[in-house]
Structures are given as structure tokens and as C-alpha cells.
Design brief:
Chains A, B: Its EC number is 1.5.1.5, 3.5.4.9. 2 copies of one chain form a homodimer. By secondary structure, chain A is α/β, with parallel strands linked by helices. The first copy, chain A, has 10 helices and 11 strands.
Amino acid sequence: MRAQVIDGKAITARMRAEVAEEAARLTAEGWQPKLVSISVGDTAAAELYVRNQQRQAESAGVLFEARNYPAETSLEQLTGILQGLNADPRVNGVIIQRPLPDHIPVKVLQKTVHPLKDVEGMHPASIGNIVYNDLALGPCTVVAAVEILKTLPLKLEGLDVTVIGHSEIVGKPIAFLLMGLGATVTVCHHMTRSVAMHSRASDAVFVAVGKPGLVTGEMLKPGAALIDIGINRVETSEGPRTVGDADFESCGEVAGWITPVPGGVGPVTVATLMKNAVLAARMQMEHYRDAYARTEH
Amino acid sequence: MRAQVIDGKAITARMRAEVAEEAARLTAEGWQPKLVSISVGDTAAAELYVRNQQRQAESAGVLFEARNYPAETSLEQLTGILQGLNADPRVNGVIIQRPLPDHIPVKVLQKTVHPLKDVEGMHPASIGNIVYNDLALGPCTVVAAVEILKTLPLKLEGLDVTVIGHSEIVGKPIAFLLMGLGATVTVCHHMTRSVAMHSRASDAVFVAVGKPGLVTGEMLKPGAALIDIGINRVETSEGPRTVGDADFESCGEVAGWITPVPGGVGPVTVATLMKNAVLAARMQMEHYRDAYARTEH
């Protein structure tokens, strides 16, 4: 293995310490950050995530309330619940756990969360703000992946980067965010004629597709950074395993840095959610104070 | 000259005929589209644009009201004016002419225009919707440049495209619109180490930087499409001239298609503004009808 394996947990620990400090400051001012997690129907799929979020929140001094609604809850009822949370000054952020039942369109719910309480960064206005380089609350996975790149001794200005995967919630926002930092970015996807042509010319490669083994060592430039955002469950002779989109073995022989899966982007994503929670609480506090400071007595 | 010169005016004429038909349909239903143009202070710089927009609007059956406010108008006054236009059912679209006086931040005004009346497509929500592939009202220049590419006999899926220039209002949205259409897109800018490395490997090149002569023939792949979005005033021995960002001579020898400046993207942009005006009027009509259809009698 030639590549240095990036330690997502170490990055997470640093971020969590900063979040805990900021949460303590906010709490002292009467604004202890609070997240509400909404899941609908069968909770088994999301349960592991929710429990992990809860643990991370509590260890950082962020309040966390996990709510579960029955599978038959209507869109109108959920919209009403979200509007209630938007209006509740004690709630600073709302997390909508996936998957949702088929009759609930996730985008409609994400749009209903007030942009200032959108700690997942999924509101169209949050995504639009990335384009405008005005990153208030960015999508957690996206911010996490880019934060990891920032820890490496690479100058982002002029860096040639290939992003593989052009989903609305990961690939495209990563590309925008990197462009804002000065990188030259190519976005590849399932219609790209030759991904390797682009990835082999790049100093850093991000992959977020959901296909194990998609990126192999021969697709990389020697010494490049590989940030693997994929999370796939695969069956192996030793039982089920979680792997990313990169063939870790061959990529590790060529890359200069590589994120492991699990233990790379995943933990940093949860830490970013907590960072968004304290950012959201501070923005709401300032918004509230501005509103009152402007009132004539 | 090897390249075929793309005739922006012919594309415009087709678009204008479609807009006129749709405007006539809307008018018959009591919803004749109406645009209001806002300029502030010295009008000389914008006057040519405004007059051109007015002429195009009128020839398509779109009402056009050009308003000019004194240079000393405050941001609060302008915000109030825009809120009044948002609330006025007779106004379907608002255009904010640039340049504005220094004390007026253009983004604040653009955010104040209601997204359904944002015919220039400059609201963060409009830009964010591009990322989500939900192009309601796109930025006019962006939509125009991509419409031009669509008129060529090139399959957009898998097309390798380089966008030179990463501005928030042109380069980035073009990149995301093209990605949504299946192209593999690289965005280059002033920090890119080698623009030619990317542009030479591309089937189509968009340039929107504002530097005459930036793109030369040797930066292109033979037969590629070159869409030139730059508009620059330069002094020549025969007096002032308007040119794009491409060196038209050398690029014309290598490219397969090339847009002239003037006469390329420019006229198509104005036609797109009119198309947005009828789209906005229709969305508002539907929104209005939905609201009333839902009321209990």
C-alpha cells in the first residue's frame, strides 16, 4: 500500500471538539442547539443512523429528539408537522430520515423545512447558495468530502479534480463547492465516454456513484487523492461487508491519499451535521436578535 | 474559414414566433404577459439594452414598462417597489437593469423579486433549481447558449464539453444545465493550470470570461463547437468594435461551428427573456387558478 489512508475519525474528533465549544457558548446565551429527527414508517433501515446521530449530538451538547410517525401519515400531516417545527423557537434544525414511504416525496418535505433550519443542506435555496459561494448550511456529505480534501497538503487553487457521479445532492454540489475554492473540476457520470481519460489527468478524484469497484488504480494518476463517498453492502466469503466505490487494494497502490470505507467520509458527515446544527442555532439567534433590536421601544 | 457560422438571428426568429403564439394564447385568457424594467440612476449604459428589450417584447405581444428611478433612491425604497411589483397581478416579470449605483447591492434586489416573476433567472432558488434539473426560469444567457448548442447535430449525452469561466451567473449554471443534459463537463477559469489541455479534448467549448482573443484555434479540437458568450468593446484601426472572447479568425479555421459576436448568443438571450416572460405568465396563471380552484364555494 503506497497511499496514506485518511483517518476520518481523527478529523471528526477535531470537528466535534469545535462544535462542543460553540454549543456551550450558545447554551450559555440561552440558545442550546436542538435537532429534531423525523422518520416515517419502518425505522429499521434508518435506525443505525439515527442512533449514531443521537450519540454524536449528545456528546457535543446538542439536544436531539427522535420522532417516528406511522407509515400511513399523509404528506399534508407531515407538512403541517414541519411547519410547526419551523415556527418553534426551541427547534434549530430538522433532519428528514430516508427512506420515506412511497407516498411521501422527499423533495417536497425538504423544501418545507425553513432554509435556516435546513441542517442537512437539502433545500433548493441551500444548494443555490453554493453556486453563489455563499455556503450557509451545505449538504453534509458534500461539505464533509471537501473538508477531508482540505486537510491534505494540496493547494486547491488550480487543482485538477474529477468528480465521478452527478447526483443533485452529492456530485453536483461537490463540483460547485470545489469550483468556488479555485479547483478545475470535471464531472463524469454514467454517460461519460471515458471516465479514466479525465480521472487519470486529475490531482484529486471524488467518487459518489454507489458501485463497488468502480474506480481502479489504473484510473488514477500516481499520487492523487481519492475521496470515496460510496457506501455499498457486499457479500463476501467472510460475510457481508461495507465498501466504497473504489477498489481499495489497487487504488491504494497508486493514490497518494485514500479514504477508507467505513471510517472515511461517513464519520465526517455526521460531524458536519452537528456543525450545521450549531451554525443554524447561531444564525437563528442572530436573526431573532436583529428582529428585536429593530423594534422601537 | 472552415467553421459554419451559427446564425443567432435565425434561432431568435424561430423562438420569437413561438413566444408570440404563446403570448396570444395567454392574452386570449386574460393574462397578457407584462414585463417591468427597473433602472436606477444614469441610464445611458443600459439604454440600448432596454430599448432592444422593449422592441422585442412589443413585437412578441408582451407588454413592457420601462421605469427609471433617480440615482439617490435607497435600497429600502427599491425593495418596497419590488415588493409592490411582486404583489401586482398585472406584472408577470421584473428585469433589474445593470449597472446599479454603488449603494445598491444587485443580489439583494435579485433575491427580492419573487421566484415566479424572476424572468432573468437570477434568484438563488432559480439557480438552485438548475442543480435539481428543474428548470423553471433559467438565467437568460445560460439558457440561450445551451439552446444554441442544441440546434447543432451533436448528441448531448456523453458529449465532452469545456466551459471557460466560472461566474455564478453564466459559467456555473451553464455547466450544470449541460450536466443535466448528459454532457461530461469541465469548468476552467483563471486559476486553471492548462485550459488548452481540457478544451482541446472537448467536443464543445463555451467561453464566458470577458477577454478578447482568450480562445485561439490551437486550443480547439478540429470540428468542435465554439459558443462565445463574451461581449467586449475593443479599439481597432477602423474604430471601436464589439468582439467576443474567441479569436474568430483562428478559431474559425479549426472549429466545426462558431457563434459570431455580435449576432450569436446576444440576440438569443433577448429571445430567451421573452420566453421566460410567457413561461412566468403561464405559471402565475396556473398558480392563481389553483389557489381559486381550491377555495370552497
